[in-house]
Design a protein that fits this description.
The protein is α/β, with parallel strands linked by helices and 284 residues long. The protein has 2 domains: 60 residues, Orthogonal Bundle (Helicase, Ruva Protein, domain 3); 197 residues, Vaccinia Virus protein VP39 (Rossmann fold, 3-Layer(aba) Sandwich). It is built from 11 helices and 9 strands. Strand 8 and strand 9 form a beta hairpin. The protein starts with 12 loop residues before the first helix and ends with a strand.
Length: 284
């Protein structure tokens, strides 16, 4: 099968996956996974169901246009419209940062902190975007409620949609705001994945051209938003609470010191790849 752009894949689903995987090699670190996700989306089934029934399905006409979009650098999550994060399937759009597995490190930090303690009752998510961190926490602690703050109204609409899709609209609230500015409540758990990429950094094409720059870049040193957040956390965090804040792999000391200078106790948690990924902040 070929389209006007000259792309060619086999006529049956198995051959199509092999051919698409080969074509995706230059543009993706996970070409086989991308091909499977695109084919599953074209068929309207989950990836697991596709793999179980692969020999029995015919290649849909809609697969080739989806493959072409990926070959042009569009992220898989934007093509399918969703991304799995923690225990949830979330809607995503170009208005929000696509949730990454690395960010699940923050939820892991929260679970470790509250193990054997009273569960968090109130959760704050600063820069909520799609609502991923807040909703993951609310799914983990079913009696909790929370507040997500974002400077983008378009992002908040995505977050509201995700809360409704996942049955959490009564426990999650979302508001326009500038980090913690103007918030007077104290929270048991604070989550944040602020922009932390240097404006001088080189990024993959699918990130640079398809995700919101306001959620990516934070000045030449990548620390601009930490400087805004650090003075606010102490007044927002309950006495026995935890703030889990995502950092870049090389910011374990530079970002942590900003919060230490604000009088807070900070330790650094690594992600599954062994890289610094999360500041665990408490009152000490």
């Amino acid at each position: 099968m070929a389209d006007g752009a000259g792309l060619t894949v086999g006529n049956d689903a198995s051959a199509a996956l092999r051919d698409a995987t080969a074509q995706l090699q230059p543009v993706s670190a996970t070409p086989r996974l991308d091909a499977e996700l695109l084919l599953a989306h074209a068929l309207g089934v989950e990836r697991g169901e596709l793999l179980l029934k692969l020999r029995d399905v015919a290649l849909p006409d809609s697969f080739m246009p989806l493959l072409e979009r990926r070959l042009q650098g569009e992220p898989i999550a934007h093509i399918t419209g969703t991304r799995d994060f923690w225990t949830l399937t979330l809607k995503v759009s170009p208005d929000v940062l696509i949730p990454r597995p690395d960010s699940e490190t923050l939820i892991e930090a929260a679970i470790a902190h509250f193990k054997g303690k009273e569960a968090p009752a109130r959760v704050l998510d600063l820069g909520t975007g799609s609502g991923a961190l807040l909703l993951a926490a609310l799914d983990e602690w079913r009696s909790a409620s929370g507040l997500g703050i974002d400077a983008s109204q378009a992002a908040l609409e995505v977050a509201w949609d995700n809360a409704e899709r996942n049955g959490m609209s009564r426990r999650a609230d979302f508001q326009i705001g500038n980090w913690g500015e103007g918030i007077i409540e104290r929270f048991d758990l604070i989550l944040a994945n602020p922009p932390y990429i240097s404006t001088l950094a080189m990024l993959p094409r699918d990130v640079l051209h398809h995700e919101p720059h306001i959620a990516l870049f934070a000045g030449e040193d990548g620390l601009s938003d930490y400087r805004r957040i650090a003075p606010q956390i102490g007044a927002l965090l309950a006495p026995d609470g935890l703030a889990a804040i995502e950092i870049g792999f090389d910011q374990g000391e530079s970002a942590a010191n900003l919060f230490r200078d604000a009088g807070l106790h900070v330790s650094v948690r690594k992600d599954l790849a062994g890289r610094d990924r999360c500041l665990e902040i408490t009152h000490g």
